[in-house]
Automatic annotation (TrEMBL):
Entry protein name: DUF5523 domain-containing protein
Domain DUF5523 residues, every copy: 10-233
Lineage, opening ranks: Eukaryota, Metazoa, Chordata, Craniata, Vertebrata
PANTHER family, alphabetized: CENTROSOMAL PROTEIN-RELATED, PROTEIN CC2D2B
Alphabetical list of Pfam families matching this protein: DUF5523
Domain of life: Eukaryota
């Protein structure tokens, strides 16, 4: 009974893959030849399976539980029919990988030496680095500035306290910080406008210049009545 069922399964599977135009006798001959090849493959597989070590057999028996019955012929036949296509696909992929590997080796051996240059790192002296930094970055000095540089030409600094003006006491500033600020302002195009007649940086309202401590209301629009002040006794 098992052989009959196997024959029927093989015939059904072959009918799917073979063209319908062939004669019945030719189909039977093809089925018999394929059946014989499948049986040979199954025998070879069993022989190779028996040559494995005992430990390998235990692992395989746990993972793959082989039944006493033979593998169904339809599965073996489909494997035999499709194995040729799989082998061709594997061969094409192997050839492609080999060609890609040759291309990579060619790039590394021929092209990379022309594009890349391997040499020692360039060393710059510390003094040269400082010169480059000074050319690109302005670092103001802390040395004092002459009054003639801070005032317009042919103008002497005025001491307003001696002229009788009241001068408020300025907040104490570290002298080197003040000198750095003066040197920085003189580098600007309109930096001299930040200095008073005495040659010092403007920090408080000057008594000889008109200054406003509040904002003038120049608009002529009437005020909102809600903003008017109401005086009551």
């Amino acid at each position: 009974m098992s052989e009959d069922t196997d024959n029927v399964a093989v015939e059904e599977n072959v009918d799917k893959h073979l063209p319908k135009d062939l004669n019945v006798e030719e189909n039977r001959n093809i089925i018999e030849t394929l059946r014989g090849k499948v049986r040979e493959k199954l025998k070879n597989a069993k022989i190779n399976q028996g040559e494995k070590s005992s430990t390998q057999l235990l692992i395989d028996n746990k993972v793959y539980q082989w039944s006493k019955a033979e593998v169904p012929l339809d599965e073996g036949l489909s494997f035999f029919i499709l194995s040729g296509e799989e082998d061709s696909a594997i061969g094409q992929s192997a050839e492609q990988n080999f060609a890609e590997g040759q291309d990579e080796d060619f790039v590394e051996e021929v092209i990379f030496p022309d594009l890349l240059e391997v040499k020692a790192a360039d060393y710059e002296d510390y003094e040269e680095q400082i010169k480059k930094q000074q050319a690109n970055i302005f670092v103001p000095s802390s040395s004092p500035v002459i009054n003639q540089l801070k005032l317009p030409e042919d103008m002497m600094p005025r001491i307003l306290e001696e002229e009788g003006f009241y001068i408020q006491k300025k907040p104490e500033i570290y002298k080197k910080t003040c000198n750095k600020m003066e040197n920085r302002l003189l580098k600007l195009e309109e930096g001299k406008c930040w200095f008073e007649e005495s040659g010092e940086i403007m920090s408080l309202p000057s008594p000889i210049r008109r200054s406003w401590n509040f904002r003038l209301n120049i608009s002529k629009e009437p005020l909102n009545p809600a903003l008017k002040t109401m005086y009551r006794k």
